[in-house]
Amino acid sequence: MPTNPFRKQIPDTMVETNNKNIEITFWGTRGTLPVSGKPFARTGGSTNCIEVTCGDHTIIIDAGTGIRELGSKLVANKPKQKTHLLLTHAHYDHVEGIPFFAPFFMEDNDINIVCGNLDGARNTKELIKNLMKPPYFPVGPEVFMANIQYNTIEENAVFNISDDIRIITAPLNHPGGSTAYRIEYSGKSYTCITDTEHVVGKQDENVLKLIDNTDLFSYDCSLLDAEMDDFQGYGHSTFEEGMRLANTAGAKAMLASHHMPFRNDDDLDHIEKAMAKQNPEFKVAREGMKIIL
Ligand SMILES: [Zn+2]
Ligand SMILES: [Zn+2]
Q1: Domain presence at residue 11
Q2: Which ligand is nearest to the CA of 221?
Q3: Is residue 156 part of a domain?
Q4: 187-217 pLDDT per residue, tens
Q5: Ligand nearest to the CA of 173
Q6: What pTM, to 2 d.p., does this model score?
Q7: In angstroms, what is the span from residue 64 Cα to ligand 1's centroid?
Q8: Are 124 and 86 contacting, i.e. CB atoms less than 8 angstroms apart?
Q9: What three-state secondary structure class fits 180?
Q10: Contact present, 265 and 37 (Cβ < 8 Å)
Q11: Cβ contacts of residue 170 below 8 Å, gap of 6+?
């Protein structure tokens, strides 16, 4: 795992389970497709998966390939915590780790799956069934042994997952739709904005509202402004747009995420340097990064 240069860093052994911090760990920051090999080693090659711990609740945003390793950790450390899997949408890079998430195979484990943007499926349960069936996959979700609750949310849904953890959502501009999540706990907030395409020259009001004054947000920085013409309609944005949005909304820190498979460590170092010129709190999200708010 690479060293996290961002903010405070503490080893797992020092984390108190009932503290009032929001703890965010990136288990996958790649978009579109996993990658491997030396050119990607410092940033990591797993697709989107973010663990957000608030007290004794574990909230996971997206089930890209990074969720496999997270699942192994959860089973080894805390087999029966309250787990919530919030899916932004069902594109492969955000769900392909679902069949390999170890907590699904533990009896008496309560897991709450939340998704909107069903794009043809009737509900979240059917969406998972469609993902795990021949000819794409050998077995269906009936192999899971955990108590799984499937929840389908509407656009702009706001809900609490406990008395003191509030989730605010907003729709994003992506083929088939995508949901942005803002997690509020103990007077702090982390916001995840992926995947979304911005309209050049017009800041997205939904995003501005959701990241307003947030302590940290991660943003779909798949592209560069200079690449937008070539990728119109693919549903992605740029680090430059992320910085513009952060400045307008007064967001305190930003992490560039959803890195394209063709973007190697050196490319991402260049992006990080360009962002740091404007604000040292704008950085690149890398696998293994842990942030405490
Ligand atoms: Zn994606
Ligand atoms: Zn997508």
Answers
A1: no
A2: 1
A3: yes
A4: 999 999 999 999 999 999 999 999 999 999 9
A5: 2
A6: 0.92
A7: 9
A8: no
A9: strand
A10: no
A11: 156, 179, 180, 182, 206, 207, 209, 210
Minimum-distance ligand to the CA of 178? 2
Rounded to the nearest whole angstrom, what is the distance from the C-alpha of residue 151 to the centroid of ligand 2? 20
Which CATH number belongs to the domain containing residue 217 in this structure? 3.60.15.10
Question: Is 3 inside any structural domain?
Answer: no
Residue 18 Cα to ligand 1 midpoint, Å, equals: 32
Q: How far is the CA of 195 from the centre of ligand 1 (A)?
A: 6
Please tell me the distance between residue 11's alpha carbon and the centre of ligand 2 in angstroms: 32
| Ligand with an atom nearest the CA of residue 94 | 1
CA of 94 to the centre of ligand 1 (A): 6
Into how many domains does the chain fold? 1
Distance CA 40, CA 70 (A): 20
Which numbered ligand comes closest to the C-alpha of 33? Answer: 1
List, for residues 128-151, the tens digit of each pLDDT value: 999 999 999 999 999 999 999 999
From the CB of residue 260, how many other CB atoms can be counted at a distance below 10 Å? 19
Q: Are 118 and 177 in contact (CB under 8 A)?
A: no
CA–centroid distance, 73 to ligand 2, in Å, is: 26
Q: Could you tell me the residue range of the domain that residue 29 belongs to? A: 18-292
10: in domain? no
